[in-house]
Amino acid sequence: GEMGTRSVAAALLLASALTPAGAWFGAPRPSARSRLSRSRVVAKDDRIYSVEIDRRTGIDFGCDLSLCWPYVLGIQPGSAAELCMQLEVGDQLLGINGINLVGAEMSAVTDTMASAEGSELRLTLFKGGRAELQQAVGYEAGPTTATITVKEEGKTDRSFTVPVGSNLRDELSKRKINVYRSLTRWTNCSGKQLCGTCIVDVTSGLDNCSRKSIDEASTLRENPVTYRLSCITMVYGDVEVVVQSPVGATQWTR
Question: Using CB atoms within 10 A of its CB, is residue 242 exposed (0-12), middle (13-18) or buried (19+)?
Answer without folding.
Answer: middle
